[in-house]
Amino acid sequence: MNVEPRFMTPEEVLHVLRLSAQYDPPYVQHDSRMMTVTFETTLLEFNDIREAEIELESALAGFCFGLSYQDDRDAFLLREAEMREILARPAVRTVGDLCHVLSELLHRTSLVPFSIANRPCKSGAIFLTLRGLLAERGISVRDLWPSTPLRLSWDLVIEAVRIAPQHMAFRERSRLLKFLMLPHLLGCGMLLVMIALAILGLGQVLALAVSLAVVMLCTAAAYSPAQYRFPGIVTYRDLCKTLAGEPVARPNKAAS
Q1: What is the pLDDT tens value at each position of the chain, 256 positions in all?
Q2: Same domain, yes or no, for 135 and 41?
């Protein structure tokens, strides 16, 4: 097993850029559009597809380099300034241009060697590496085992992307979040109706209560990151096998 660190290829950086738009707040809903981003896509077009409030240089400093403004402000600001300078270069006009520049800066995480019966086990090496990286970020890993149910977090995604960017999965919305988006769409209309009732003096208390409930429900639907998951990945073992490019065993429903 090759555990030597190496720089990412432009193709790997492209996948990282596609992934980055999914983790910029507010959470992006148009995953299919991100897959249309290619080396030929201009940076202006890429920003239109991202539709994120956070600036591209901030997204690159945070997601691509794993820096947090809250945890390491100075390092984040330095990297952000570097990304801003790169994006301002006349020669960097397309996503491909950006990927080739970033491929000389971004490197993949080297793995902790791990073997079973004197045979290298890549998924096991990825688990040990990922566990150690999460511990370095201050996350308790005392009860973290391969069978532990996966909990999606920014720290986990950041480290997983740098281990195997080409195998990192896109996340998807659960049915619950899709259901909760319905009141988000109807909320404005209902709120206007309640305001009209209040102005007319009909059911003022009821109007206020319903209006507040609608606003709270819509806010929860729009900003609930817990409803995102990786399709088909349930445990840390599943994630590590995915990152290793190995098939993930599915539970046998007939046997149960």
Answers
A1: 444 568 999 999 998 888 876 655 444 444 567 778 899 999 999 988 877 667 889 988 888 888 777 778 899 999 999 999 999 999 999 999 999 999 999 988 989 889 999 999 999 999 999 999 999 989 999 999 999 998 878 788 888 888 998 887 665 544 444 444 555 555 655 666 666 666 655 566 566 666 666 665 665 555 444 444 566 788 999 999 999 999 887 665 444 3
A2: no
Which residues have C-beta within 8 Å of that of residue 32, sequence separation ≥ 6?
Answer: none
Q: Note whether 74 and 154 are same-domain residues.
A: no
Is residue 18 located within the same domain as residue 82? yes
Kindly list the distances between the CA atom of residue 146 and the CA atoms of 6, 51, 100, 156, 193, in Å, as whole numbers in the listed order.
Answer: 26, 36, 35, 14, 52
Is residue 91 included in any domain, yes or no? yes
Please give the tally of structural domains in the chain.
3
* CA–CA distances in Å: residue 151 to residues 62, 65, 250: 20, 21, 19
| 172 three-state secondary structure | strand
Residues 154 and 239 in one domain: yes
Q: How many CB atoms lie within 10 A of CB 219?
A: 12
pTM of the model: 0.69
Within 10 A of 78 (CB to CB), how many other CB atoms are there? 13
Domain range for 205? 173-226
**Residues contacting residue 212 through CB under 8 Å, at least 6 positions apart:** none
